[in-house]
């Protein structure tokens, strides 16, 4: 491997570790700022949503993915391309209904340095940022979705499972005006 390719790989690893540590510090600060887990969860979801609506442009520009024809293809692209690109993991995808999918992470990179939830914070959704980011990105490509944690390894589950329910395809406002 060339020296520059090795350096790029090292930089990617360093920046991922820095992101994970910074994210943990962010959640810790939110726990200090807010008494209720629901407030922290809402804040993380809102932050994730804002990240998702901005991240989708970078994703579409760099990934060269084609327009998805159905929800199944969309779920596969989220797992195989987006998660791999931004978090370095590839969750498996399971389908429960024609519009419901689960992303199953055997290893959640956001909890690399976290052993357990803080005491008294059992309803904290530590990785709630992920749900918001997925929801925001999907909304930007005109797909309304509900995104929730079904299982969480920090709460004693074997894996982390994120559920995505596609609600409807949102019609583009430009298309409505032209009709």
CATH superfamily: Trafficking protein particle complex subunit 3
Helix segment count?
5
The secondary-structure element order is HHHEEHEEH
Mean pLDDT: 88
What structural class do you assign from the helix and strand content?
Answer: alpha+beta
Q: Which of globular, elongated, flat, extended, rod-shaped describes the shape?
A: globular
- Any guess at the CATH architecture? 2-Layer Sandwich
CATH class: Alpha Beta
Oligomer: single chain
Helices and strands in order:
Layout: H1 3-33, H2 37-63, H3 71-87, E1 92-97, E2 100-105, H4 128-140, E3 143-151, E4 160-169, H5 173-178
Helix pairs in contact: 1-2, 2-4
Pfam families: TRAPP
InterPro entries: Bet3 (IPR016721), NO_sig/Golgi_transp_ligand-bd (IPR024096), TRAPP_component (IPR007194)
Subunit structure: Homodimer. Component of the multisubunit TRAPP (transport protein particle) complex, which includes at least TRAPPC2, TRAPPC2L, TRAPPC3, TRAPPC3L, TRAPPC4, TRAPPC5, TRAPPC8, TRAPPC9, TRAPPC10, TRAPPC11 and TRAPPC12.
Describe this structure in words.
The structure is a single chain. With 179 residues, the protein is of the alpha+beta class. Helix content is 53%, strand content 17%. The protein contains five helices and four strands; from the N terminus they run αααββαββα. The chain has helices at residues 3-33, 37-63, 71-87, 128-140, 173-178, and strands spanning 92-97, 100-105, 143-151, 160-169. The protein has a four-stranded antiparallel sheet. α1 (3-33) runs antiparallel to α2 (37-63). The chain is globular, with a radius of gyration of 17 Å. The mean pLDDT is 88. It comes from Eublepharis macularius.
